[in-house]
Fold this protein.
Amino acid sequence: MILCAGVVIFRSMGKIMKSIWKYIAIIVAAIVADQITKGILLYLITGTVPLFGAAWDVVPVPYLMTQVCNFFNIVFTWNPGASFSMLRGLGEAAPLIIIIGTGFIIGFIAYYLFARAPKYERAPLALVVGGAIGNLIDRVRFGAVIDFLDFHIGGWHYPSFNVADMCIVIGVAWLILNFVLARRRCVRSVKSDKNGK
């Protein structure tokens, strides 16, 4: 009896761990893609990939690397604010405030992801967590985030961003889409139950 219960528990734990590892892999892939692209840019500009340093001492000015096409450039900029240059007005305290705030947010989302989130929310949340950790690594290393993707139309430039920002935006959009689709399924189910009675 005890042996059977142990086997059942072991099998269910195996399924849970397999599920968890899938989402951890998404988080790690987002972090690695983000850090590799930023590392390549640092190497192309400085000839090295510094582990730590004050952002503007590492690369002193915004740097246009190449114009890819009429609406897209690869640039190098430091963002001391939050995503898409928000919260830049906090001054010298901004990096510390953002690091602490981001750490709390990542912890909360990660807890929800692994402990409470329904299955349809987990992959998008893993993307958000991976992107947030990618930018947090920059903040801890340099006090600012490396942004390099610059889309523009004429003289109007969308705020430059990076792979971590893309993961966050895609994750949030995917989460919203999944929520809308789940809600529609729920409404259809309720309607069909009413019609069946």
Remarks:
- The beta strands are 63-69, 72-79, 145-153, 156-157.
